[in-house]
């Protein structure tokens, strides 16, 4: 099995979501000695924000691509190839201002391509990214899985909706949450790692 681990925290070795993502990927790898991990750090090797040239390239047939458009579409082609090659995807999703980091959003902007990762049929939209297991490692200062801040839990519904739209419906979320809450934060990562069942 090939495991793709996407890091999105800018905090390097201090990152809690990366520690949780590493633990998930590590347990997946340990399940079978043949399993391999490809790590893509989106914070240090980000995809470019979508500009007009990229969007034009997405909607231009291959035979009509100019050299400029062919160059612009390479990032998206690479992101999609890396995704399609993986059997399992571990996505680190730290909460920054109630959302995922922009580097992870930019990755999403590059993997969403009509007729590559989704299509529209008579029966409505169809996801084309099938047979993947997805694990999301959320880290947050507050608590969003339950309680008074649950209405601010935008990340899990967003990722479930977006990745499900692309066909990735087998998604498990692990959370190291309440990191800034005294009495909870001290054990949040340890508890999240202990809860990993892969
Ligand atoms: C700029 C910034 C914004 C943050 N925004 C939130 C937030 O909206 N909600 C929250 O619960 N925690 C927030 N936090 C706390 C982070 O979620 C927490 O530090 C978490 O560990 C970040 O993940 P990381 O360690 O993988 O980078 C924020 C932290 C920073 C530095």
TrEMBL record:
Any coiled-coil regions, as ranges: none
Subunit structure: Homodimer.
Signal sequence, renumbered to the chain: none
Cofactor(s) it depends on: FMN
EC number(s) reported in the record: 1.6.5.-, 1.7.1.17
Similarity field: Belongs to the azoreductase type 1 family.
Enzyme class: oxidoreductase
Domain of life of the organism encoding this protein: Bacteria
Keywords: Flavoprotein, FMN, NAD, Oxidoreductase
Biological classification of the source: Bacteria, Pseudomonadati, Bacteroidota, Sphingobacteriia, Sphingobacteriales
Domain Flavodoxin-like fold, chain residue ranges per copy: 1-195
Name of the protein in question: FMN dependent NADH:quinone oxidoreductase
Cofactor note: Binds 1 FMN per subunit.
Chemical reaction(s) catalysed: N,N-dimethyl-1,4-phenylenediamine + anthranilate + 2 NAD(+) = 2-(4-dimethylaminophenyl)diazenylbenzoate + 2 NADH + 2 H(+); 2 a quinone + NADH + H(+) = 2 a 1,4-benzosemiquinone + NAD(+)
Function of the protein: Quinone reductase that provides resistance to thiol-specific stress caused by electrophilic quinones. Also exhibits azoreductase activity. Catalyzes the reductive cleavage of the azo bond in aromatic azo compounds to the corresponding amines.
One Pfam short name: Flavodoxin_2
Entry binding sites for FMN: 9, 15-17, 139-142
């Amino acid at each position: 099995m090939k495991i793709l681990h996407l890091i999105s925290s800018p905090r390097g070795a201090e990152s809690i979501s990366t520690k949780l993502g590493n633990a998930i990927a590590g347990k997946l790898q340990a399940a079978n000695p043949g399993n391999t991990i490809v790590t893509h750090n989106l914070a240090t090797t980000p995809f470019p924000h979508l500009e007009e040239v990229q969007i034009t390239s997405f909607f231009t047939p291959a035979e009509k691509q100019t050299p400029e458009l062919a160059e612009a579409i390479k990032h998206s082609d690479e992101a999609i190839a890396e995704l399609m090659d993986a059997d399992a995807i571990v996505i680190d999703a730290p909460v920054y201002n109630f959302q995922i980091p922009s580097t992870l959003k930019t990755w999403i902007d590059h993997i969403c391509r009509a007729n590559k990762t989704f299509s529209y049929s008579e029966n409505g939209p169809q996801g084309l990214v099938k047979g993947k297991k997805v694990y999301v490692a959320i880290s947050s200062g507050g608590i969003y899985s339950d309680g008074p801040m649950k209405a601010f839990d935008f990340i899990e519904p967003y990722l479930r909706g977006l990745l499900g739209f692309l066909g990735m419906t087998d998604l498990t979320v692990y959370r190291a949450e309440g990191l800034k809450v005294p009495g909870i934060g001290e054990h949040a990562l340890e508890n999240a790692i202990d809860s990993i069942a892969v």
